[in-house]
Structures are given as C-alpha cells and as structure tokens.
Design a protein that fits this description.
337 residues; alpha/beta; Peroxisomal Thiolase, Chain A, domain 1; seven-stranded mixed beta sheet; 10 helices
Amino acid sequence: MNRLGKQTIHFDNPPTIVETASIVGPKEAQGPMAGYFDQCLEDEFWGEKTWEKAESKIIKETVNLAITKSGIPATNIDFCFAGDLLNQCISSSFGLRELNIPFFGIFGACSTFVEGMCLASICLEAGAANNVLCATSSHFCSAEKQFRFPLELGNQRPPTAQWTVTGSGAAVLSSNGNGPFITHITPGKIVDMGIKDANNMGAAMAPAAFDTLITHFEDTGRKPSYYDAIITGDLGHVGKDILEDLCKTKGYNINANYDDCGVLIFDKSKQDTHSGGSGCACIGTVFSGYFFKQLREKKINKILLMATGALTNATTSQQGESIPGIAHAIAIENEKC
C-alpha cells in the first residue's frame, strides 16, 4: 500500500469484490435498472408497521443475501462497515444487530457505500482482516420525513429535487480472489460552496465530486479515457451537468464515459422523479445490481466509482447553514495494476 499524490492510495495486493446483493422498492422496480436487482418489493412497508422498520429489514435481508451469494460463511467475515441516512444510523444498527459480526457504523450521507469500501480495502490490505462486508440503505419515505417534509403534507417538489432510492446494496470484499479488484481509493475532502437549498442536493454535491475527481486524475496521472466508465452516486440530472461543466474548466472532458446512478435508476420522463435518484442506496443498488455484473462479465474492465454525500441534517437547514459536500472514489479493475 502506498500513497500517490495528495490523497490517493494504491494497493499492492488489491482486495477482490467477491459478491454483491441488492434489494429495491416498488418505484425502483419500475425503472430501467429493474432487471438487474436481486429482489424488487411490491410496497414500501414490506410487512412492517413503519418505514424505518422496513428499511432495517431491507438492509438485513440484503446483507444476508450477499453473504449467501459469496459462499463465505458469516463466521469467516471479520468486520462489517455499514451506514444509512437516518439519525444515529438506526437502519443499519437495528437491521444488523443479529448479524454477530464486529460492526463499524459509519456515516457519509449518500457517499457511505463507497466510504465503507474505502475503509474495508485499507483494513484488508493492512492484514487486519480476510473478509469484510460493506452495506448501506435508504428509504424515500423515512428520508423525506427526516430531511424535508412528512409525505402527508403533500408539498410540491421543485424541478431540482431528487427521489431518495428505497433499497439496499451490499458487497463482500476479500483479501483473496480473482477480481474485480479495488486498485486505488481517493477519499474526498469536505467542500462547501454555500448552497443552502435542501431541494438541490446535486448542486451542493457536484463541487465535492469535482474536487475528488480532479485529485484522482492528478494523483494517478490517469485521464478520463483510462476508464470504461466513470460513475457518480447521486448527483442526478442537475448535478451531473454541473460536474461535466466544472471538469471542462480544468481541461477534462468526461462526457464520453461518464454517467450518474441517480440518472440511471429512474426514467425521468415516465416516473416523475424530477432530477433523478439520490440516497445511500442509489449507488449501492446500481453498482451492486448492474455495474458489478458488467465487471464480472468483462463487458467493462475499469470503472471509477465515486459516491457523493450532502453532510447536512434538518437542524442545520433550519439554522440557515449551507450544505457541505463530500465525495469518495474507488478504482475497480479486472486486472491488478
């Protein structure tokens, strides 16, 4: 393991992503990615009495499915890194309380899935573990209630608003395996450009994505064309356009191979999701459901996966604070490098 440039880490023995799993809600099941998810739910409650309990059930079942698919016994998984959007990460801690695996509860807002994979990769490279589980979840109904307005109010959503993905994504990483490998990680810095609109998270997070992406290119000496795909987590249509424009100011044209999970998971014209998807589960489900399969089938061989997060809560918004952003990136490749 060695440091490259300002903030990128290159792994000498890169960890393998052994297996992934994904479960999504009913709206996601109507979107263009539906055929790639392991399970699609028919309603947001999934037999539970509250949305919060439903979200805990979703992450619990997704994690169990990922472990089963990996073929690695739960007793052989050394650590679990998981988090979500709800206060004190209750979806993860309550959903995984019976897992009986040493647990790290983490919070990076919508960047949590890749943050967990960054931390797990360091843990594996350092020899502190052989197998690590990473997971995250989000739920449209619980997130709206906590961060914006209860659904019962029927508030009108502006065009810049995004639809929090209901679902969960999980991945099992191992120090042994034949790939796909996490070869590099570029943890991000907090970037705050003064955006205060809680209904325009794409604009708030795009500057952080820009900072991490440019840093990754400068640290590694790679160009956008090195990757078959550059994928952000949940900038949505608005944030995606902003990131493309920002990159051009530094001489990087990413348009040819860049896309965003918040754009991919919903059909904007048919599903009334305005600027697209968001939430921890946005990148968690799209990567676990779609891109991991593309890597495994060698349809793509090099992907830069970058999750973005808005580090805010209801209290800071009510107190007039701006919305800081964060973005973490990992390079996933079918060959060690």
